[in-house]
Amino acid sequence: MALRRDALQAALPLMQAVDRIARAEAPHARSTVGWAQVFPNSRNTIPGRVSFTVDFRHTDDAGLARMDAALRAVVAAAQDEGRMAISLEPVVYFPPAPFDPLLVSRVRDAARRQGLSQRDIVSGAGHDAVYVARTAPAAMIFVPCKDGISHNEVEDADPAHLAAGCQVLLEAMLETAGRAA
């Protein structure tokens, strides 16, 4: 065992660090290791290479920079142990996209007027509204999904919840257009 260089055993503490880094940036940081590949991926062969993705999200660029620096420090410390070669390869960067406070308040108020439960949330998911927010005021409305699964191909929402969300959207849009019901 002492002679083994198991890439999966080296990768696991890095994956755990990804979670710790986001928790240290609570409450608005998110992190995910959503994909991993072990080579040669054989049940009786020591893994020689592991690749995995790290997705960091935060409400501001400074938070993202801290998270990136923390991961780089963990990787540097692991490199100093000298047992495995580790490389970080940035794939894509999406800046945080804050939503328009006025539109958010109009959505919140429309939900209250309908007697719907509501709460402000920070979405870490890459919705289309991220791109809209770069050029125009934007906000989002979320509705409950079956088993809490959202932003996923198996997402399933009750039609009544969808109708309520559409009504919130309509009221917020009418108020924004100066045509409040």
Q: What topology, given as strand order, has the largest sheet? A: 1-4
The CATH architecture assignment of the largest domain turns out to be Orthogonal Bundle
Tally the beta strands.
4
Q: Uncertain regions: pLDDT < 50 for 5+ in a row?
A: none
First CA to last CA: what distance? 72 Å
Shape descriptor reads: elongated
Give a short account of the largest sheet.
2 strands, antiparallel
SS-derived structural category: mainly alpha
User: How confident is the prediction overall: mean pLDDT?
Assistant: 92
How many DSSP helices?
Answer: 5
CATH class of the largest domain: Mainly Alpha
The domain tally reads 2
Rg, Cα atoms, Å: 22 Å
The CATH topology of the largest domain, please? DNA polymerase, domain 1
Overview of the molecule:
By secondary structure, this protein is mainly alpha-helical. The chain has two domains: 7-80, Alpha-Beta Plaits (2-Layer Sandwich); 101-176, DNA polymerase, domain 1 (Orthogonal Bundle), CATH 1.10.150.900. The chain is built from five helices and four strands, in the order H-E-E-E-E-H-H-H-H. The strands form two sheets. The protein has a two-stranded antiparallel ribbon with strand order 1-4. Strands 2-3 form a two-stranded antiparallel ribbon. Helix 3 (101-113) crosses helix 5 (159-176). It is elongated, with a radius of gyration of 22 Å. The N and C termini lie far apart (72 Å).
